[in-house]
Every structure is written in C-alpha cells, then in structure tokens.
Amino acid sequence: MCSKKLLPAAILIAISAVVQAEDRHHEGHAGHEDHSRHFAHHAHEPGEWMLSYRAMTMAMEGNRDGTSDVSDADVLVDFMVAPQNMDMTMHMIGAMVGVTHDISVMVMVPYLNISMDHITRAGEQFTTDASGIGDMKVIGKYLMVDTQDKQIFLSAGLSVPTGDTEVMDTTPMGEVRLPYPMRLGSGTYDLILATSAQYALDNGAWGVDGEAMIRTGSNNGYTLGDRYKLGGWYTRGIAPEWSVTGRLSGETWKDIEGADPAIAHMVAMVPSADPSLRGGRQINASLDLNFEPAGSEHEFSIELGTPVYQKLDGPQLATDWVASIGWRATIN
User: Fold this and answer.
1) Between vectors from CA 197 to CA 236 and to CA 105, what angle results, nearest 5°?
2) Tell me, what CATH number does 215's domain have?
3) Cβ 323 vs Cβ 59: under 8 Å
C-alpha cells in the first residue's frame, strides 16, 4: 500500500530530475534579459520574507454521477436527503522565508466558511454551516535549477490536522455530526510532494507543475483519499505593470478509506455521508489578471476559473466556478 501511494510522488521527482538534466545541457545562454517577474514561483534570498493573503470562493451546484447531471428527484429515489448546492469561502494567510539561496520554508493557514443546502423527500429544505481554521501546511521548497530564463523547484511538506473534523450542526434529525464535505480538515498528517518548472519568454513565461497529497494514518476510523494534480500555465505582459495568466490543470482524488462510525447511520440517508461516493477527477481552466506596481514590492491578482470536465463518483455535488483575489509582498 505504501509503495502504491508513493509511486505518483516518485514520478514527480523523476520528471524534475529529467528536466533538470535537460536544462543543465542547455545552460550557458548569455545576454538574456531577466523576465523572472512573470514567474509563478519565486526564490528568496536568506532572511527575505514574503507575506501573502488570498480570498477564494467556490460554488458547487447540482449533483453529478460520472459525467452526467443528476436531478434532486433522481437522488431522492435512493436517499432521503439530496444536497443541492454548496458554497465555500477560504481566507489563506501565508508566510515564506528564505533560509538559503536554494531553500525556502513556507507556512499557510486557512480559515474556512462552508454552507450546504439540502432538500428532503418531504420537500423540506435546510442548510448546514461550518466555519473555522482548516489544516495548516508547512512546506520546504528547494530551487534545483536557477538561470536567467528558467527555474525548477522541488517541494516537500506536511499538512497538519488543525481543522475540526467533528463539526456539528442542526438538521431535521436534530444536532448531528456533519458529513465529510462539511469538515474543516482531513484529521490526518498528510505528506505533500510537488515539483514545478518555469521558463521566461520575451514578454512573459510558461510553466508546468504537479503535486501529490498523500494521506497518512486515520481519523475516527477513516482516511480521506489521496489527491494528485498536474497543470500548465502561460503568462504574458499586457502593460508595463500588468500581466494575464491562463492555466489548464487536471486533478484526481480517491474515495475515502474506512468510515466514520458517528455517521454510519446516515450513509443511506444522504450521499455526502457515503465514503464510496467521494472520489472524482476534473480538468479546470482559469484566467488570472496580475498587477505589480513599478518599484513596489507588492503584487495583486484576481482569478476566475471553471471546470471543463468533471467525472465524479456520485451522486456528488459538481463544481460550478471558483474565484479568488490575492496579494503578496516581499520584505527584505
């Protein structure tokens, strides 16, 4: 089991090694202008700090089984309650510091607000809510290759279970522990492995990146499914202080292993309580507008994205759109 879990991470590392070797073969190009301000990832000198804040909202509406939309009526044939939509807002505060020229350490702490609307077979509608701190992430980033027109990073870190997994709220059945999508964390220490490569162009940059989140241990008898991401992006300057970024990424996540006995009686009542209906795969497209004032250490961004393909182990709520605004500042 452990070797199967680590296989995708090993693939990420192997890709980085191959790209690093290719880049070393082509190093030595002189006279290139430094376009690193367009890079998605940044290296930091020892003692240099970067503070960041991002507010993200995600809307999920309607159920999907496989690639087909499923109506409330269809869900209520097999379950007593059908989730209708879910809104999630996340405020992410981050800090990164350069330890050496090649190594940086980053800490990210999210605050989540989650709301889900439901309807019962009897036509009664109700909403459940959860809010609080999510899982904190501590990540180390290693700059493998650093030239005037390319950078390659390898990252490893840990997701710490600081988010509440025993969230309670009132439903028609009274005060109950909420199903898995309404919980604020995984309840387990999760390994994060990632790699990214980015290349400068005359008036922009492009890059590829991948990430694996590998769950470890269990929480109240269950473990969330592993998640894997792979994506590419292209950014182009449209004015001296403005740039626009397009991104296409794929993501897959597995069903939950085990089950929380506290909601075992709810498995036949609502699909969000069924651990075998939590997996899926998705392809996302997004557009990002970036503003970096001349002579300033501040950067601002606004992003809008939507899935172009979703295949879910359903019935499961489908993602409709995602939007975010962000800020980051470098402190020497």
Assistant:
1) 105
2) 2.40.128.130
3) no
